[in-house]
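Progress report, Aim 2. The chain analyzed during this reporting quarter is listed below.
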Amino acid sequence: MTSSDQKTLDRVTTLISEITDIPKADLQPGKRLAADLEIDSLTTIELAVAIQDEFNIDVEDEKLKELKTIEDITDLIRSIRK
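Predicted structure tokens for the chain:
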């Protein structure tokens, strides 16, 4: 993982932690948003809006539906920012 990827992951986990009150230590890249972290659909939408604002990106609704893990989020951000 590059330092840029690590910074992105850190910013994503910070946002998730702030929105859900889940400790950052529990937010590993492979964690599944719904199954492991019990993040519901409403919170997922809130998280998507925060990520778009934080990274100044636009994410299509279809892409949002594909996000299952924290790593999926960071991969999407990386692909959009290229």
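The mean pLDDT is 93. The CA atoms of residues 56 and 81 lie 9 Å apart. These observations will guide the mutagenesis work planned for the next reporting period.
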